Amino acid sequence: MLEIQQLTGGYGTVPVLKNVSFTVPDGTITGLIGLNGAGKSTTIKHIIGLLHPLKGTITVAGHTLQADAQAYRQALAYVPETPVLYPELTLKEHLELTIMAYDLDEKAAWARAHDMLRRFRLDNKLDWFPDNFSKGMKQKVMIVAAFMTDAQLFIIDEPFTGLDPLAVHDLLALVQAKKAAGASVLMSTHILATAQQYADQFVLLKDGQVRADGTLAQLKQEFGLADASLDDIYLAMTAEGSR
Ligand SMILES: Nc1ncnc2c1ncn2[C@@H]1O[C@H](COP(=O)(O)OP(=O)(O)OP(=O)(O)O)[C@@H](O)[C@H]1O
């Protein structure tokens, strides 16, 4: 479970995020939605500990970064929008690094990794350097590294751009399997039709604040749009003036 309470923060002393609160319960997928510049990446940077809040608290599976940094970091796995890889490490070495960082059982972790590598057709590339892979292949490496962990929270930033349709399908299957196993998933995306289909609830960010959050049914009620799709609700939100 991810719990964000009254988070105010950003890059300097002028906050980008203002009193952001939401939760991602165990066994659920939450879509983080908003216009360019609304604060989605900034929220994610706070959760993964890259930025420090000016105010507020972030709890992952009962841990805070301040109380127990290692437990907090091991409780979450992150797939960034832009793959981050070490030029001097092979694919195999990247995955070994994940096993060490997350203190994973080697046999079980490699079994999970091999299964995903086969799906992503990377199983014959373990001794290659992913730094030379195509963008989509690099993204797949980041996905395998994240999904081989036992994390309680999975954060996926813009998962659908750059992946081929088969890979998107495979990624969604991995996300659903983690959800079924009781993990919580936060997915930032502009692909609203897919978000509507797969997410259980949504957080709509606008100008660094939560404009609305909840299930599609709750959002429809909030915006007074009985038959609306997530797309319709998004357009209604953007048409509103700044609050
Ligand atoms: N490194 C940075 N330093 C200062 N301000 C930043 C930095 N990165 C982002 N911002 C500002 O923070 C605000 C929120 O940006 P953020 O990247 O969180 O938006 P986003 O919702 O992820 O947008 P997008 O959909 O374009 O990825 C913007 O006003 C942006 O200019």
UniProtKB/TrEMBL annotation:
Highest taxon listed in the record's lineage: Bacteria
SMART domains on file: AAA (SM00382)
Stored Gene3D superfamilies: P-loop containing nucleotide triphosphate hydrolases
CDD domains, A to Z: ABC_DR_subfamily_A (cd03230)
ABC transporter domain sequence ranges: 2-232
Organism, scientific name: Lacticaseibacillus baoqingensis
MF terms (GO), sorted A to Z: ATP binding
UniProt protein name: ABC transporter ATP-binding protein
Keywords on record: ATP-binding, Nucleotide-binding, Transport
